[in-house]
Write a structure and sequence with these properties.
Helices cover 12% and strands 49% of the residues. The chain is mainly β. It has two domains: 183 residues, Jelly Rolls (Sandwich), CATH 2.60.120; 76 residues, Sandwich (Immunoglobulin-like), CATH 2.60.40.3080. The strands form three sheets. Strands 1, 2, 3, 4, 5, 6, 7, 8, 9, 10, 11, 12 and 13 form a 13-stranded mixed beta sheet that branches. A four-stranded antiparallel beta sheet has the order 17-16-19-20, with no helix packed on it. Strands 14-15-18 form a three-stranded antiparallel beta sheet, with no helix packed on it.
Amino acid sequence: MKQLLLNPLIDARMKKNRFKIGAVLCACLFGNALNAQVECVSLNGYTDIYMDFVSTDDNTFPPGTLFVSSGSISYMKLGNFDVYQTVSGDTLGYNGDIGIDVSYPQCSSKILVFSVDTLDELTVDAEPVFTNGNTIGSYNGMNFSVSHAANQPYTVQGQFDLVKLFSGQNRIYDVCLTCIGAGVNELNSSSVLIYPNPVKGRLNLKSTLSIERCKVFSTSGNLLAECQPDPVSGEVHLPSLAAGHYFLEIELVGNRTERLSFQFIGE
């Protein structure tokens, strides 16, 4: 059960960024014609201290924990010996393995683009794709395809929920998800702002639409609490929660529902 608790040379990195920007741009141009939305991982608010806590506290953060949540993209801890080390911008340095969970948005098709410094093995929904360090080429699964060329990002496209990356010392960065077709409105919540995030004790909601009520969920789907924001200030008093990450489901006027992720860091 998933739980949510919440140096290459500069010129080589620039080359990878150019490929990544081009891939995302193509996805955006292609997606605009097909009712698609694109979002990228942001590590704003995450710290090296938090990553050390994730790595060393296997009781609070057992394998299967979604320890980073950025919109509809989450990073999953895969094993007790995985060490998540440094946050630099939107780059996460780690030693071991990591999962990219994109199970939340319900899309007709997904396009996941990401970059890593090195990779030994890659699986998609437990199906082996690349093994023994042979990560150049393409692979066609039953409901998805994977492609990777030298000095370019990895691209996974189709219907899938979890991509697992196996390696040693590594960095992951430039992670973006395109959601095409049905359910794309779940990907971005442009009408609701949640702040501060990470949250300490109380959070505030701001929306262009009237907020009727809200609910706090774990990533496993358990309802933890129902809440009612102050009609003037938008302030929400949170229940007693363990430090970590959660989903806040917000019910807006007109039977519209949006879901946001937030990090809780204690009272």
